[in-house]
Amino acid sequence: MSSDTHVMEFRVLVETNNPPGPDVLDIDGMSWTLTPPLDIESATIPPYVCISYTWGDQRDRNPLRPTVEMSINTLRVVRAVVSQFSGKAIWIDAFSIPTDPLRKRATLESLGYIFSNAEAVVAVLSAESAYAIQRIDALLTGVQPGHAPSEVPSDVLDVLDMDAWIRSVWTYQEVVNSRELYFIMGTGPSTRVVEGEHFLNILGHYYTIFTRSHHTKSLAIQAEYPYVNSILDLLAEWQMQQSHSVMSIMSGMNHRVWTTPVNYFYSVIGSITTQPSRRPVQSSVEDLAEKTMVISETKGDFSFIFAALPRDIRPGNRWRPQPGVLNSILTSHPWGYRQSARRVDGGVVLENVVVLPTTDEEGEMSEEAKRYLSDLISSNLFGDDLDDKNIAIEAYHIFKKLGFLGPEEWYMTTDGYFYPFESLPNGRGRRICISGELRWVFGAPGLALVEYEGDMCYTPGIHLGLVRSELSEILLH
Questions:
Q1: Helix boundaries (H) for 127-260
Q2: DSSP per position, 349-409
Q3: Per-residue CA distances from 7 to 39, 40, 94, 292 (Å)
């Protein structure tokens, strides 16, 4: 391995014949030790699995890293994985992440590489969540397609929505990068293993049945069970094994739990790239946010432009979010692989967009857009008893429940309504730029452009309505 302190460190737990000592763990009668740092460019890395779990609040002495503590859960989850996945080396954060600050940062920036190269990721759920999944499985057993079980209780979803692993910020990149995914249900004597696809199928099926049985609006249930909805979206992305936009990552991270903002960025970076870090940045929010956006740009994805943040004030970068935690405009999952753009002198050209004036400056909403909104009303996506006049306000209240932080104002365009993240300045030439590559079932993310006091101002927001197929591009400064 390179002596460069700026590169990641890769070490795994392996079985050993070494006698008991300070560098040997006894796991149910078997001896395990931590390998020396391995050369990731060589073929000497043993087949390994990554453990995905939560630390909780309680700490214990770390037998292999005596200068730092570990979670009281660490040895318990290692035992559970060893009992079910014999013969595999194990990567687990408490032992595998180095303590040297530079190597630690490089390793944390390389989590996408580590998890994507594992043979499998093994998630360990709490006993309460394991029991909830077991109950769901039992409730669905023998139910014919198109039918519902005799009872559809909400308490199982309540338990899962409170689960620390499902809520964790680390979970996103650990799942989305996995080749194979398994869930270990509990860490006691009745431990069992559930494949990731089966977990998705039974939870997704039950979630759909629950929505129908309780006559719940599909967007309203997203607000009621945001973490269950988020894990279903995440598992669907994992199952499709396709690239995902940074905006979909942002929406999946929006309400997740982290102890410090840098953990948010390490998980985001690991979700965007599976390349090992060669030059880690300082662990400040600003540096990590900047690195996240640069990596995304390098991949041709500028969808971070729709982050719910004020804009940069630097000339040529006024379209860009200020470096900070990249909160999504909504927690609702957007579909699409990227927002295309290209850098030019003095700014960026946003590609594959629809550019519309607001109707107070030019015309009314088109009949085609009115029909689209009427279809949304008929679908009960936002609720019952809606008409063309109150869909705008009802949608706003639903958006608020889905994490939207904008003011209670919206602007009519020829194709629908636009809800800005911040109040728009009273300037000239107001236009709404709508993504043609990223979609929600009810519209798409967008950007308002207003000329104010000689400068162009940019504000992200939500477009509710029709997204036309005739796309163009626009220069942003």
A1: 127-140, 155-161, 164-167, 170-176, 196-213, 218-224, 226-240, 246-253
A2: EEEEEEEEEBTTTS----HHHHHHHHHHHHTTSS-SS--TTTHHHHHHHHHHHTT----S-
A3: 11, 11, 19, 18
Q: Does the model's pTM come out above 0.90?
A: yes
Q: Which two tokens stand for residue 383?
A: 């609720």
Question: Does residue 374 contact residue 391 with C-beta atoms inside 8 Å?
Answer: no
DSSP per-residue codes, 272-312: H--SPPSSPPPSSHHHHHHHHHHHHHHTT--GGGGSSSPBP
Q: For 243-283, write each residue's pLDDT tens digit.
A: 889 999 999 998 899 989 999 999 999 999 999 998 888 88
Stretch 351-371: mean pLDDT: 86
Question: Which residues have a Cβ under 8 Å from the Cβ of 434 and sit 6 or more positions away?
Answer: 353, 354, 355, 356, 415, 443, 444, 445, 446, 463, 467
Amino acid at 177: N
Which residue carries 């180095």 as its tokens? 98
SS3 category, 103: helix
Q: State the amino acid at position 35 in one-letter form.
A: T
DSSP characters over 147-175: ---S---SHHHHHHHT-HHHHBSHHHHHH
Phi, psi for residue 299 in degrees, rounded to 5: -85, 0
User: Which tokens hold the place of 418?
Assistant: 């636009």
How many CB atoms neighbour CB 412 within 10 A? 19
pLDDT digits (tens, 9 = 90+) for 79-138: 999 999 988 999 999 999 999 999 999 999 999 999 999 999 999 999 999 999 999 999
Burial class, 13, CB count within 10 angstroms (exposed 0-12 / middle 13-18 / buried 19+)? buried
